[in-house]
Amino acid sequence: MSRTYKATGINLKSMPMGETDRLLTILTPEFGLIRVIAPGSRKHQSPLRGRSELFVVNELLIAKGRSLDKITQAETVESYPGLAKNLSKLAASQYLAELVLYQALSEQPQTELFEILNEHLRRLENLPNKTSDNSLVLAHLSHGIFHVLALSGIAPQVHICCLTKQPLAPDFNAPDWRVGFSIESGGIVNLAPEGERARGREGERAREEGSSYQLPVTNASTEAPLKINFKLKGVELALFQQLAGRDLDRLETLLPSEIGEPYQALLVDRAWLAIEKILRQYTQYQLGRAIRSASLVDACFAETMA
After folding, report:
1. Looking at domain 4-79, which CATH architecture does it have?
2. Do β-strands 32-38 and 69-78 pair in parallel, antiparallel, or remain unpaired?
3. Domain residue limits, the chain
4. Which of 76, 93, 235, 243 allows an S-S link to 146, with CB 3.0 to 4.6 Å?
5. Does the pTM exceed 0.70?
6. Could you give the CA distance from residue 94 to residue 88 in angstroms, rounded to a whole number?
7. Which helix (H) or strand (E) holds 267?
8. What are the tens digits of pLDDT across the range 172-208?
9. Distances 290 to 98, 152, 243, 286 between C-alpha atoms, Å
10. Are the CB atoms for 161 and 188 separated by under 8 Å?
């Protein structure tokens, strides 16, 4: 039986081991997550030094060991040097890598997950480096998160109400229009279904006064109050619904033409911030663990959030 095997993998995690080695956690399409030693890779002259950096994709020849396998040969086929040159891109990439580490399986093919991660790292690297374009990083981070969750079958429902199963479309014209987001229910919730939320004395008074009214939302299966964790504006819902697609379109094209361009840009920036926060809490709920890299994302976008 052969004592070596070949794999293609992207480095997701690196830890020093011994005096000169590194212990790498690598995502491969053939074998899922593997943990291997890169011998001598911390030496300055080692051919494995650059090939063991984060987000480098290598074709590997690996020798089996008693407890840990070892890399014997590595040939780089792709890398993302631009990520390390921009702190916001690096933070977003580490966030995606951490999420993939939580989702990936060992000893099972992970071809789709491997391709999704590389595609979104490639998109992040190709974004402009201007500070004014930082919201694009949040947009593409959110897009990547959504796709990783979708591959695992746990992406939030963003097109139909989780309770009524009816489609929901954003309303840009009503300033007070909102749609709920329930983490426990798994997505968006219509806060005012037609013919249901305007009943009772308060509803009649609201109709007479021309104002809006919403009864508390309940879970039909248990009749218990349903926890609404967030309320999304039309812009935020439109953005959220775009995450399910393969590509991101310019959200500004969906907004009413009466809204001036400077205000459109502000709306979009704020919307991306809100969506990332919602996705983060939703993801942490689904995984049952915190996303540690999120603190670096917060630091990078502190000025935008101010």
Report:
1. Beta Barrel (2.40)
2. parallel
3. 4-79
4. 243
5. yes
6. 10
7. helix 261-287
8. 888 899 999 999 999 999 997 543 443 333 444 434 4
9. 10, 18, 22, 10
10. yes
